[in-house]
Amino acid sequence: MHAAFPRFTNEIDQVMKHGFNTSKASVLLDRVGGKLVAKGMAFLLELVFGLLVLKDLPDKSQKFFDENFVIVDPDAVGGKRYYQGKFLIRTRKHEDDMNVLLKFCPDPDELFIGSPSTEVVNPLAVVSTKTLTEKKAAKIEKNPDKVDLVIRFKDVESIMQLLKRPDADMVGLLLENLVQLTGNVGHLFKIGAIAANVEQALDLPKF
User: Fold this and answer.
1) Number of folded domains in the chain?
2) 158 inside domain
3) pLDDT (tens digit per residue) in 97-114
4) DSSP alpha helix (H) spans, the chain
5) Which of 167, 169, 178, 193 would you call most buried, defined as having the most Cβ atoms within 10 angstroms of its Cβ?
């Protein structure tokens, strides 16, 4: 579990840190809190994966997609299926109103675009994100058909503090009671593997 969600956001952290590193941004964060963080997280997650499947040459994008999202399954049509993990990211502080639903490959029929001879991965279909109200998040978080794993941070402040701890790992955060996990924790290992590959593939400027 060491390479799980916090490592998944190392490069995203750099963007968020740069964006919030002004006095005006700090005041804005105090006013809108979790909603701003949720929208920023949702946008950046979609942006990062969109960039990864567009990055460099198409064959490299296809390789990244195949390694992270294609599952060999003799019982599936065509002998393969796609990883469709669903993660709900929340905080334990209800007034934060910080809820992001992250889905991988939500619609397999939309994963590729182009003709059979020129087919490439659709950068808009690899992940989908949605910000939710507290009421909506509470309604779906215990429904295994809607969510596989809930990653619940202590509060928005703890999320922002993690921007200063890019090497934090899930075990440490669990021991510090900064994160709680509920649901199918087996998905944590998968998102950890994706995290490591994202970290290797991205080459964002250091702020």
Assistant:
1) 1
2) yes
3) 999 999 999 999 999 988
4) 5-8, 10-20, 23-32, 34-54, 58-69, 134-140, 156-162, 170-175, 186-201
5) 178
